[in-house]
Amino acid sequence: TYTHSHTQSHTQPHTSMTTHGLANTARFIAACRALEALRAPAERLFSDSLATHFATEYGFRFVDAIASTMTADGLEDARQQVADIVAVRTKFLDDQVVTACSSARPAATQPPQLVLCAVGGDARAYRLALPRGTRVFELDLPEVLAYRQRVLQQHPQTPRTADLHVTALGADLSQPAWRAQLVAAGYQSTQPAVWLVEGLLMYLTLEQGRTLITDVASLMQHPASVVCGDVLSGSYITTPIMGMPEYRDLWAAWGSPFVSGTDHPEEFFASCGLKGQVWELGQPGCDFGRVHPRRKEIFLQQQPRGSDSPPILPRHFLFRASRAAPPAPASHL
Which of 32, 284, 296, 319 has the maximal Cβ count within 10 Å? Predict the structure, then answer.
């Protein structure tokens, strides 16, 4: 019998995720993005020429391992299902970043700032059409940034943005010192900034995630500043249905266990001082014709969000949040 408490923190023990300078998950995501290039040009949601180099053979083997858990017509179809989920997330957040940076430009006395948290193999600074002069801050552990630098030296990129300024900042986001490091590197909290926290919160405990997002909110003093990203539901971490225990075990076996999530993301962001707008993969505006019809039928039609009580379906949320009034106490975190 499935039991669930709204007050659970949905946590599991955390283990190391780093292999040869880049997180296992970063290689996995890069491999999924590289698979987008196999589509006809007119069908691609984005183009990421660095993805294959960041993925390495390890990333593609990781994708195939995850694909082996999918119900599909062969490995190729399963691999595409896995890659499509990442492609939708990537495209959605691409659009959010570009729109937010473009909207921030007229409201600022300086070009917008873009902060990429746990940047890993993210190539957005080079492939997105950002406003002229955008200042990009790429944050990650020093060994990850060293690996990125080697890849970029071997495969030089010409940014789509004129006068782009990229600052790589070696920082541990689980430690409070990163905020002072960012400011010392030139970040200005009173100027518009767009933050991206993608593929990170699910590998932190709920309290670590809340601390991180609260810290981000404290550095978003301009009303045009926003933070975008993704977060899993708490049920994603605990549900026994849809083959999820085996799926989670496989991620853990590859050194990347899911640690936490929240079934009430709006309340989570409110507790961090932010007002969050939340989407679910597959809903209008977060689909791009790639989300499997069966997933949309189950999650959006048969059991739309809020209809399954206690929450049991493994949901994947995308968000955009901005500064809000001081938060009220939340009861479902």
Answer: 32
pLDDT for 190-242, tens place per residue? 999 999 999 999 999 999 999 999 999 999 999 999 999 999 999 999 999 98
Contact 202, 261 (CB under 8 A): yes
Dihedral angle computed from the Cα positions of residues 174, 178, 180 and 181, in that order, rounded to the nearest 10 degrees: 170
**Tokens describing residue 164:** 């782009």
First to last CA, the chain: 23
Of all helices (H) and strands (E), which one includes residue 331? none
Q: Do 269 and 275 contact (CB within 8 A), yes or no? A: yes
Q: Which of 50, 57, 51, 61 is nearest to 30 (CA)?
A: 51
CA neighbor of 281 nearest in space, from 120, 65, 93, 127:
93
Q: Which DSSP string corresponds to 25-94? A: HHHHHHHHHHHGGGS-GGG-S---TTHHHHHHHHHHHHHHHHHTTS-SSSHHHHHHHHHHHHHHHHHHHH
CA dist list (Å): 289 to 30, 185, 200, 284: 21, 41, 25, 10
